[in-house]
């Protein structure tokens, strides 16, 4: 009796083992297949992209340092004028930062409204939650350049089209992130305020915002950092600021490379500076929350 | 003793409240001041003067409507019908829109009782309700008409050119040609151009009806004519979308593959040498700080314009970003799991494989998939600068400043593309590492 039971356990152990090995092998097979497909996609992708490019990868690879070398050597020759050039493009830098800052501020307000109106439990009109979510999805999906180019056609070049374009995208992107935070907010203060007869905006301002403020500020800082890059890029398609000056300086070609170098330096330093600044503040905010 | 303590803490609390109150007012005040400064710095007030509202009207009306031109060449007397006045939209010989009738006297019915007649000898009659019949004749380089001296603002007239704009359409007369534009809502010839046998056929008659073109089966013929539609170039748009997604995919994945080994070098736990760590981190910071814009500019010099340049620009910038976040993830790895694995006698490589990788993979994948979506947008923008993908098509269409319906089409396609990538990366994340909540 006991013997039979013992042999049946042994049976099932070896069963389990063979099952397990089989499963492991199947997993390995699937994993290997996935890897193979991935590698094929990467190789085929690079091949296609290379085919459709004006110059090939291998022909271009050894020239990669030529342009930076030209720019740097010319900038080094004219290094005496560099401070003057940096000063000359400083207003453009301020404009780029201003575009990023204003669009972040506008985007934060837009995102705030979209998130509060699109979060369950907080929304003013609960039936319209899907509508506000779709609005923020679409605003997030539009690349800045689309709105910027269309607005440049109507409003003419300058910082305003870039500002509007970035603000719209920022509002959509922050709307989603804010709403994820707001979903986890404690509803008790809101209910408490509601019992005193507070209006919707009072409930949000006094009940929800203090809870979510550290996260919101942290996300906004991250957005500001992203927006500086975006505003520089949009400048390149004609929306003012440092990117616009860069395009002009590049159009002049050799002989004016020192100007391009000055812009490169300003842009690089600005991005690194705000990067460090925002990551320091964000760390402080999230640490403060953890304690 | 206690009384003093209470007083002191009350004082502290009061000053704290005072400070908070001050901050509560100061922050909005600073923001408002800054916005006022921006209002003047960006010259928002002067914007209304600089803005070109005619452009806005063209854009708004042209993006959802089209016009059919009926043009008479006043020298030869030939009449040509063309959608948007383009060669691609030319009506084939012997065919014309059904709102044009007559042979010697061509009657063009613009709708709403607005009627234009092309008479022999380059004469034109225009009937507009509530306005006397307009008669005009083109003679050499001049246009004569019976228009009075006092004109309403929708008619502009000189002895060289007469322009009439009504709600139903526009009429322009010059010595060389007489043109009527009739407006219709919608995107013209979106499915098939006029030379395709499938033009004007309904969906059901293509799929279930009789064979229209004797040489091709209905479905493949229609698909072919749609794909190679000369007006909208659906095939090229699909290629451009694919190219943009490809740029984002290759850039993101390539960056992740390069960043992962480097991230080990930058993480304190796995890289004991301070110098290597610091160098890798500075490398990440540098690559990130230079930014996609400058990389695009620099790489375009070496590789020429095209999708490869965009791919590499995304790849290089994101190597920095990924390196930073990956190394942070590696720093936060739980030591116990590694110890557990090494207690079974695992070698270092096995310790990485079974102790470290399973812990960081979810974080890494989430990051990569998020960037895949965000890089689709970047690829659109970089494509506009370096000339690849849908970004290039969009800038080209905007620069011609007349094909606004194409611009609208591209915008819709771009939004759908980004939303699809957003959904797809979310779906993939769900499949690979489970839902977030």
UniProtKB/TrEMBL annotation, chain A:
Its main location: membrane. It is a multi-pass membrane protein. Residues 93-278 form the ABC transmembrane type-1 domain. Keywords: Cell membrane, Membrane, Transmembrane, Transmembrane helix, Transport. One of its GO terms (molecular function) is ABC-type phosphonate transporter activity. It is found in: Cell membrane. InterPro entries: MetI-like, MetI-like_sf, PhnE/PtxC. One of its GO terms (cellular component) is plasma membrane. Gene3D superfamilies: MetI-like. The chain crosses the membrane at residues 29-49, 97-117, 256-274. NCBIfam families: PhnE. PANTHER family: ABC TRANSPORT SYSTEM PERMEASE PROTEIN P69, PHOSPHONATES TRANSPORT SYSTEM PERMEASE PROTEIN. Belongs to the binding-protein-dependent transport system permease family. This is Phosphonate transport system permease protein. It comes from Cognatiyoonia sediminum. The lineage of its organism: Bacteria, Pseudomonadati, Pseudomonadota, Alphaproteobacteria, Rhodobacterales.
TrEMBL record, chain B:
It is a multi-pass membrane protein. InterPro entries: MetI-like (IPR000515), MetI-like_sf (IPR035906), PhnE/PtxC (IPR005769). Keywords: Membrane, Transmembrane, Transmembrane helix, Transport. Residues 241-425 form the ABC transmembrane type-1 domain. The chain crosses the membrane at residues 21-40, 237-265, 352-372, 379-401, 407-428. It comes from the Bacteria. The keyword Lipid biosynthesis does not apply. GO terms for cellular component: plasma membrane. GO terms for molecular function: ABC-type phosphonate transporter activity. It is found in: Cell membrane. Pfam families: BPD_transp_1. Belongs to the binding-protein-dependent transport system permease family. This is Phosphonate transport system permease protein. The lineage of its organism: Bacteria, Pseudomonadati, Pseudomonadota, Alphaproteobacteria, Rhodobacterales.
């Amino acid at each position: 009796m006991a013997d039979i039971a013992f042999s049946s356990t042994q049976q099932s152990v070896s069963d389990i083992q063979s099952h397990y090995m089989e499963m492991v092998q199947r997993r390995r097979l699937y994993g290997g297949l996935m890897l193979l497909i991935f590698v094929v996609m990467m190789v085929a992708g690079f091949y296609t992209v290379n085919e459709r490019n004006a110059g090939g990868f291998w022909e271009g690879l050894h020239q990669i340092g030529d342009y930076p070398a030209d720019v740097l050597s010319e900038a080094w020759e004219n290094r005496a004028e560099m401070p003057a050039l940096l000063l000359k493009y400083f207003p453009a830098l301020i404009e780029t930062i201003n575009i990023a800052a204003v669009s972040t501020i506008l985007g934060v307000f837009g995102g705030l409204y979209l998130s509060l109106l699109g979060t369950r439990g907080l929304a003013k009109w609960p039936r319209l939650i899907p509508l506000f979510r779709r609005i923020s999805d679409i605003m997030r999906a539009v690349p800045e350049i689309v709105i910027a180019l269309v607005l440049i056609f109507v409003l003419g070049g300058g910082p305003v089209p870039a500002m509007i374009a970035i603000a719209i995208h920022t509002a959509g992107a922050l709307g989603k992130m804010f709403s994820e935070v707001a979903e986890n907010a404690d509803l008790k203060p809101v209910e408490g305020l509601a019992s005193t007869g507070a209006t919707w905006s009072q409930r949000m301002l006094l009940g929800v915002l203090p809870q979510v403020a550290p996260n919101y500020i942290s996300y906004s800082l991250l957005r500001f950092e992203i927006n500086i890059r975006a505003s520089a890029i949009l400048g390149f398609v004609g929306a003012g600021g440092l990117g616009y000056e860069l395009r002009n300086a590049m159009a002049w070609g050799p002989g004016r490379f020192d100007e391009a170098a000055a812009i490169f330096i300003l842009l690089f330093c600005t991005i690194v500076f705000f990067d460090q600044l925002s990551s320091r503040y964000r760390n402080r905010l999230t640490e403060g929350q953890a304690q | 003793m206690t009384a003093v303590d209470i007083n002191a803490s009350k004082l502290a609390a009061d000053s704290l409240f005072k400070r908070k109150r001050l901050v509560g007012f100061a922050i909005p005040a600073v923001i408002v001041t800054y916005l006022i400064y921006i209002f003047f710095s960006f010259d928002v007030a002067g914007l209304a003067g600089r803005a070109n509202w005619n452009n806005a009207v063209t854009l708004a009306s042209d993006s959802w409507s089209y016009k059919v031109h009926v043009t008479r060449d006043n020298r030869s007397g030939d009449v040509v019908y063309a959608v948007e006045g383009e060669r691609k939209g030319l009506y084939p010989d012997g065919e014309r829109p059904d709102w044009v009738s007559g042979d010697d006297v061509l009657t063009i019915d613009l709708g709403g009782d607005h009627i234009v007649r092309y008479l022999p000898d380059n004469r034109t009659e225009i009937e507009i309700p509530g306005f006397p019949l307009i008669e005009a004749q083109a003679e050499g380089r001049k246009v004569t008409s019976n228009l009075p001296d006092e004109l309403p603002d929708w008619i502009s007239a000189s002895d060289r050119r007469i322009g009439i704009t009504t709600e139903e359409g526009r009429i322009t007369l010059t010595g060389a040609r007489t043109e009527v534009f009739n407006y219709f809502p919608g995107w013209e010839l979106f499915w098939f151009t006029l030379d395709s046998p499938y033009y004007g056929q309904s969906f059901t008659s293509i799929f279930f009806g009789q064979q229209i073109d004797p040489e091709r089966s209905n479905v493949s013929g229609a698909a072919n004519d749609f794909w190679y539609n000369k007006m909208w170039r659906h095939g090229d748009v699909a290629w451009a979308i694919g190219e943009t997604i490809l740029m984002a995919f290759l850039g993101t994945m390539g960056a992740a593959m390069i960043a992962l080994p480097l991230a080990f070098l930058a993480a304190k736990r796995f890289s004991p040498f301070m110098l290597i760590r610091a160098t890798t981190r500075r490398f990440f910071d540098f690559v990130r700080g230079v930014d996609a814009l400058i990389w695009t500019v620099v790489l375009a010099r070496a590789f020429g314009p095209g999708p490869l340049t965009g791919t590499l620009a995304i790849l290089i910038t994101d190597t920095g970003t990924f390196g930073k976040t990956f190394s942070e993830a590696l720093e936060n790895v739980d030591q116990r799991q590694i110890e557990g694995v090494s207690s079974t006698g695992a070698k270092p490589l096995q310790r990485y494989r079974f102790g470290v990788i399973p812990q960081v993979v979810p974080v890494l994948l989430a990051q990569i998939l998020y960037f895949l979506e965000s890089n689709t947008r970047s690829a659109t923008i970089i494509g506009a600068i370096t000339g690849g993908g849908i970004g290039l098509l969009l800038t080209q269409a905007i620069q011609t400043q007349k094909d606004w319906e194409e611009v609208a089409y591209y915008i819709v396609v771009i939004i759908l593309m980004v939303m699809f990538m957003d959904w797809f990366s979310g779906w993939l994340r769900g499949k690979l590492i489970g839902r977030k909540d």
